[in-house]
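Priority: medium. Attachment 1 of 2:
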């Protein structure tokens, strides 16, 4: 059976064997999200995990939808002004930059232990160990006493900046987060309404409606609220650079956050692609870029994408309705 250490926040933190990484000091603070922040960066700053922040703040999905100005609950004593200082129980002699990389280990003192011995074992300074526990030099410790030991955390691989096996910059991910937050607040068409919009737009631009529907179903399931870490937006999953390209083709600025403009951008791109290449290459070009397909051939994931889209198109032509 696992022992449990109960902290002042009321959360139960399991301790495996003698020690386990905990999410900072007892209690909670607040952190105001700044432009460019990602949840993984905030988690690292406060010595916790993305999963913990998602749970504490009841964030949707994997927590991608955070936005500048939002105040998040964080473990320990945070700052609502977006301070980069780490949380702590008492003060430490570490600089703010170093504190942001620290976590805590709960260690139960054994007979014969000393402050210097524990500090050496965990590769932390005696001063930091004392400060983390509100102790002064010379204060006694005893067997069975739990100590909070500051330890350096290994940086964890990010998961909020990857999509389809590709990694995107913090700037792109931040833009995606902002767009996702905007769409979250909007009243948007139902999937049935999006289907009708795709069909009417495809007919207007001379594109096979079943092809446009198949691409959108593969990309988003006919949902305008979807934004990928690559900042592909909406029902047709159009990235901003493609939105600018298709805006020039139609002669007006397209707002990819608006359902009608998003569908127009995707359909116009399909029209351009199907006019320049055979169907499978055109579909591959929608996913990988036509230039990339012609230069490098289809990547393995592109081949899967094309197969899926063409299969969905054939099913739609036979009367399949995924919304039933």
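Attachment 2 of 2:
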């Amino acid at each position: 059976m696992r022992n449990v250490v109960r902290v002042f926040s009321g959360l139960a933190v399991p301790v495996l064997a003698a020690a386990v990484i905990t999410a900072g000091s007892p209690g909670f603070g607040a952190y105001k999200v700044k432009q460019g922040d990602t949840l993984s960066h905030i988690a690292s700053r406060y010595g916790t995990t993305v999963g913990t922040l998602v749970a504490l703040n009841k964030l949707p999905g994997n927590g991608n939808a955070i936005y500048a100005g939002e105040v998040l609950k964080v473990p320990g004593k945070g700052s609502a002004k977006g301070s980069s200082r780490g949380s702590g129980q008492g003060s430490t002699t570490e600089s703010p930059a170093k504190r942001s990389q620290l976590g805590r280990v709960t260690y139960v003192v054994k007979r014969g232990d000393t402050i210097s011995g524990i500090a050496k074992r965990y590769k932390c300074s005696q001063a930091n160990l004392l400060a983390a526990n509100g102790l002064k030099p010379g204060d006694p410790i005893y067997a069975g006493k739990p100590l909070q030991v500051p330890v350096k955390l290994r940086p964890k691989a990010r998961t909020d900046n990857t999509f389809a096996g590709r990694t995107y910059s913090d700037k792109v991910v931040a833009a995606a987060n902002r767009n996702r937050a905007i769409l979250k607040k909007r009243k948007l068409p139902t999937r049935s309404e999006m289907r009708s919009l795709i069909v009417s737009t495809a007919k207007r631009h001379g594109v096979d409606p079943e092809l446009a529907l198949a691409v959108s179903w593969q990309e988003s399931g006919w949902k305008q609220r979807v934004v990928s870490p690559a900042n592909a937006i909406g029902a047709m999953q159009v990235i901003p650079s493609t939105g600018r390209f298709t805006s020039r083709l139609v002669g007006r600025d397209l707002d990819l956050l608006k359902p009608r403009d998003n569908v127009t951008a995707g359909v116009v791109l399909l029209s351009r692609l199907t006019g320049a290449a055979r169907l499978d290459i055109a579909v591959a070009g929608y996913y990988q870029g036509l230039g990339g397909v012609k230069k490098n051939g289809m990547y393995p994931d592109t081949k899967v994408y094309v197969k899926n889209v063409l299969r969905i198109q054939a099913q739609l032509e036979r009367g399949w309705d995924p919304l039933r």
